[in-house]
Amino acid sequence: MPDFLFFINEVLWGSIMIYLLLGAGIWFTLRSGFIQFRYIRKFGRSLKNSVTPQPGGLTSFQALCTSIAARLGSGNMAGVALAISAGGPGAVFWMWVTALIGMATSFAESALAQLYKEKDKNGQFRGGPAWYMARGLGMRWMGVLFSLFLLLAYGLIFNTVQANSVAHALRYAFACPEWITGLVLALCILLTISTGLKGVARLMQWLVPVMALLWVAASLFVAARHIEQVPEVIATIFKNAFGWREAASGALGYTFSQALMSGFQRGMFSNEAGMGSTPNAAAAASWPPHPAAQGIVQMIGVFTDTIIICSASAMILLLAGPVPHSSETAGIQLLQQALVNLTGGWGAGFVSLILLLFAFSSIVVNYLYAENNLIFLKVDSRRMITLLRLGVILMVLAGSLLSMPLVWQLADVFMALMAITNLTAILLLSPVVTLIARDYLRQRKLGVPPVFDASRYPDIQAQIAPGTWDDLPRQ
Questions:
Q1: What is the distance between the alpha carbons of residues 330 and 352, in angstroms, rounded to a whole number?
Q2: How far apart are CA 141 and CA 155, in angstroms?
Q3: Whole-angstrom distance, CA of residue 182 vs CA of residue 184
Q4: Contact 422, 276 (CB under 8 A)
């Protein structure tokens, strides 16, 4: 089974996904007028404006923290270690590339999710790729297919990856048996998801900034203690990104394709741009009154996840010395060993606790994404929601006991299937993305707070849910 999954991953990631991700990211960068670079300096203002509460949904800040919570998991720690182990330091550069071009892709999918959102029976806004496939493309069958992929990936497979990393980390740091870790984590998750979407969002708007700041602060502390090595580490990343290496350095050699493939795989697993997960959170926001505004806010999540959090992990790993090219050691243990070497015995425990917070938040939001797609499939009865919760809990328990290679390979396959379906949809809807971006930028140039007026675009007005974008007040 591992050999078969390895072959499938080679096919998907060795050709299809790299070209599709690069192509989509570059396409939306051009079609949106380089929006991620034009608005990066305005992220602070976007965050300030994103806390405005409105009826019918989450604030944009809550939606952002919820989406970041899903991103901040083992991919930011164990995933970075595995990327460097498989592709060398150059993989970090390609993770940065996935973030920069992925920001445009994230803008596109999040703006579309906002545009095609609708209210559920409780008055809460719902939406995501399945909705824009059904409404924007008129292909409900495609939305159903995507929802099934997401239910398998986020309801089941990805949760095993998070639980697996946490169990290994706590075993390494505190000799805690894996089954105890799985049981405690599962109970905490069950209690949290029982609070519903708004309860989870309120928790994440406080938890996400705290745990992100803790990890970044630890990395800055380590970098400050080894400041003389930082320029060399950065130079090594760029040299190895294109297969360049100095034979005299004694470092292990990696090819360009190894760095590229590893960086793209782990980068996408971490920031999720183009995968179709983030739009499920983006659609839940009820403010501000233009779909492009939520797309810009969600770009902050990609930047935070990969450029900041993943770079923090990479800095710790590379400052500790060469990461083994071929090792049976789990990715998270590589990171623990690195921090122990740099700071002392407390490093392993600190990594474990940060990973526990990351994984907990990620699994909770993964469940919300899966539940959201039960609503699209119109099978969100109490019985089905109970079965989904049971499935999440069982996979967390099982994930703490599964072997690491099998878990990561399954995650890579389902990630690729989701991404192919979602990227196909947003590329087909790229004229709508262009229209949204231009409408937003036009109003910004006029010096007015952008408001989406659906009546200006009759074709789109016929596709969106009635009443969603009618009579929106200006800020």
A1: 13
A2: 20
A3: 6
A4: yes
